[in-house]
């Protein structure tokens, strides 16, 4: 049955300060993306993850550098948490040749494969079966790597989710399925279209694996629940569904003002901002405010420098449209 | 006379050769293990290579394709079986949106060296949802290589190239050819992707064929000898890479082209062949290009109805006769 995870573990002060800095970098990058969009420098669309930072940072902290991560079109936070630079991400959004995907992917496809961040996928649910494949491959190669699929609550009603959970359990794969439940699919509340209260965790039992609920805005709690799931996976005991409850600070995408969300609900969740929760905890631990301010100032500097560098970067080379269709680097479809 | 083998046995032979050669090759699909595959195309593999190399899956086409993709991205060379090509529709997202695009949209950060094998085509009376020729579905998606062998030796040789390719390959095995016989592939047999084969040389009309329409075209060519018409039959072997050089070279001699394709006329691959010939070989032609293709209807069940709507030797003979006298 669905379990609730707490945050009993006391991590080192320096660790939580580091996590706060990472979350602040992600928050700052998302705000920069928003501002650059408003200035006409980011085209297309963005699905900002402001509000979801604790999930990316807490979960990544429980992983080995060689573990695999698959994310969604709302994936800036995961790319950054796995080592994509804010500059590379903002450059990608601004169609610069220095973008993490050389401006061929855009906001929805941020990837840092050399850090095990194997992509952001924009067809809902499609990457859960891929995470199974990476875990299956790790088993076959004997590497004890773990694969993680991060996905939204909306993905829990698509076939690929259910197919992936079953196969992961049957093959006892080292996968952690992390649902970022922000209560809304796009504009519609997930609760209004789902047969169970916890759309991800409650489906775990039907597939013979633990389903765990965790406060997705508490980075310490996320880390602890993730560490448990990762340990279980790495030990060969199979997959876990981790459902992290959270809230997005922006609408679904650039064009969505999110007017469908009740003001009181928004207020309640903004008061539980993951950065606020981390600061509060540091204060409770007696960490001087100056130490907290210092890491947040450093994060702000990181983002400001990244934004400037991305804006100064050269635009994408149109000829790059004809590279990397095939492994030989080219696009020839005839001989 | 070389040893003869069936197309069906060539599939398992081709897979076995690569499984022996490369430990990163692994198979997954429905009923492919102890059962040996519903078309008996994986017979003996589970016994020889074991459960760590040959994986039975649930009936979950998306899970199969996603698992193959994730494994391919992380160092394996998976070969996924989708039992009937009609079922590609159940996991079409992976062929349309995921597998062919992962390399491109990440700026070249990932590779997806995997093969999707699937039983394609009609002629066996399986009805509308188990008989389609859907090679043209894959042909609409840049980023997929497409193979459709017509002989047992080509099954082995093209399978080797497909599995060794660092790009994703869709490998169409024609259901109507499984029982057909041909020369067995010699040891170490490899047929490069994108090299068409002149299956029968001729001087008057070029017939471009693929998979099951190759033996059909060869039978038509034999009949047309009596009419004094010399037909050159080209087996494309692959749709991507597409070997148009061989087709255009043939037209330099024959000046007449018939394309025989089992997928529907609407959206069929022959339209692309015709379009390239119109663009690049217009002055080679002495007659219009003709396409003998599946009719634009769902595949019917009864033999008499099915035969009415898929290419037959008789239809091709008729088309070549008319074109030869144009």
From TrEMBL, chain B:
Superkingdom, taxonomy of origin: Bacteria
Cofactor(s) of this protein: thiamine diphosphate
Domain Transketolase-like pyrimidine-binding: 5-180
GO molecular function: magnesium ion binding; oxidoreductase activity
Keyword Oxidoreductase recorded: yes
Xref: InterPro entries: THDP-binding (IPR029061), Transketo_C/PFOR_II (IPR009014), Transketolase-like_Pyr-bd (IPR005475), Transketolase_C (IPR033248)
CDD domains: TPP_PYR_E1-PDHc-beta_like
Segments passing through the bilayer: none
The entry's keywords: Oxidoreductase, Thiamine pyrophosphate
Database matches in SUPFAM superfamilies: Thiamin diphosphate-binding fold (THDP-binding), TK C-terminal domain-like
SMART domains: Transket_pyr
Protein name: Alpha-ketoacid dehydrogenase subunit beta
Biological source species: Nocardioides guangzhouensis
